[in-house]
Automatic annotation (TrEMBL):
Source taxonomy: Bacteria, Bacillati, Actinomycetota, Actinomycetes, Micrococcales
InterPro entries to which the protein is assigned, alphabetical: AAA+_ATPase (IPR003593), ABC_transporter-like_ATP-bd (IPR003439), P-loop_NTPase (IPR027417)
Pfam families hit by this protein: ABC_tran
Claim: Ligase is one of the keywords in the record: no
SUPFAM superfamilies per UniProt: P-loop containing nucleoside triphosphate hydrolases
Organism for this UniProt entry: Terrabacter aerolatus
Biased composition (Basic residues): 258-267
Keywords for the protein's UniProt record, in alphabetical order: ATP-binding, Nucleotide-binding
TM region(s), chain numbering: none
The protein's name: ABC transporter ATP-binding protein
Annotated stretches, region: Disordered: 243-267
Gene3D superfamilies per record: P-loop containing nucleotide triphosphate hydrolases
Length: 267
């Protein structure tokens, strides 16, 4: 069966700095797959390579058998993407934001209105669709971004740190939506998160990245069992790298959390 994501010997450098180093990884169709690691591990670079936002330097990536190198337009049609940075427009209403994406992704004109209704329903924002997005809470903004990413009915949903900076209730609500959509639509989901307990609960398999390299790959249960009795995914990471997960660069996890917290409300 064709893999949803097939990454082979992927490498990417910013000048002399190696961000992704010989990464080989397959994600199966229908899987919820977590890419985990501290700041600077190379997760966002990997995601930007597979969603065609960065050009490949070395290695190959195929999405459902389509090469990102030669079939970039087809790959984009297969993908929904929620980036780390906010991607919604505060001066538009929630509904207008989703309509804008529907146009951008060529959802046929006569289907647009029904599709927008459908995704706003999925993320529970129908009642608030006429409010300006600048009045939304952080959790509502993230759910609106999910609706945008889903409006072209992607086979693969890619989420880069979708819940960092949100409070536990808002995080839970975003994850519940993702899990439900995956169940209901058989979508493949690739996500990055700093929240190990969530990765543990949601992901069928995870890859631990550290300094651009793959350090461990497997189901959370397998990885934890191999790291010792009672081990958590944090322990698994320490076991494979000798470092704690929040020992990354740029001030580590707390600085990213702070960044997202300030970005929580638009306007
Ligand atoms: N545009 C850029 N120019 C130079 N270096 C970059 C650039 N983008 C990323 N890097 C560097 O490449 C490495 C990998 O960064 P990347 O953003 O992929 O990591 P990450 O695992 O996603 O971390 P984070 O959670 O902070 O986004 C880091 O050392 C980072 O500083």
């Amino acid at each position: 069966m064709t893999a949803a994501i097939d990454i082979r010997a992927l490498g990417y450098s910013f000048g002399s700095h190696v961000a992704v180093d010989d990464l080989t990884l397959e994600v199966e169709a229908g899987e919820c797959f977590g890419l985990l690691g501290p700041n600077g591990a190379g997760k966002t670079t990997t995601i930007r390579l597979l969603n065609t936002l960065l050009p490949l330097q070395s290695g190959e990536v195929e999405i459902f058998g389509r090469s990102v190198r030669t079939d970039a337009m087809l790959v984009r049609r297969l993908l929904g993407y929620v980036p780390q940075q906010l991607s919604i427009e505060g001066a538009l209403t929630g509904r207008e934001n989703v309509e804008w994406f529907a146009r951008l992704f060529d959802v046929p004109r006569r289907e647009r209105s029904a599709r927008v209704d459908e995704v706003l329903e999925m993320v529970d924002l129908r009642a608030d669709e006429s409010r300006l997005a600048s009045t939304y809470s952080g959790g509502m903004v993230r759910r609106l971004e999910l609706a945008q990413a889903l409006v072209n009915r992607p086979a693969l949903l890619v989420l880069d740190e979708p819940t960092v900076g949100l409070d536990p209730v808002a995080r839970d609500s975003v994850w519940q939506r993702v899990a439900q959509m995956q169940r209901d639509h058989g979508m493949t989901v690739l996500l990055t998160t700093h929240y190990m307990e969530e990765a543990d609960e949601l992901c069928d398999r995870v890859a631990l990245m550290h300094r651009g390299r793959l350090r461990a790959l497997g189901s959370p249960t397998e990885l934890k069992a191999a790291a010792g009795t009672g081990a958590s995914l944090e322990d698994v990471f320490r076991h494979h790298t000798g470092e704690a997960l929040d020992d990354g660069e740029k001030g580590g996890l707390s600085s990213v959390r702070a960044t997202r917290r300030t970005a929580r409300r638009l306007g």
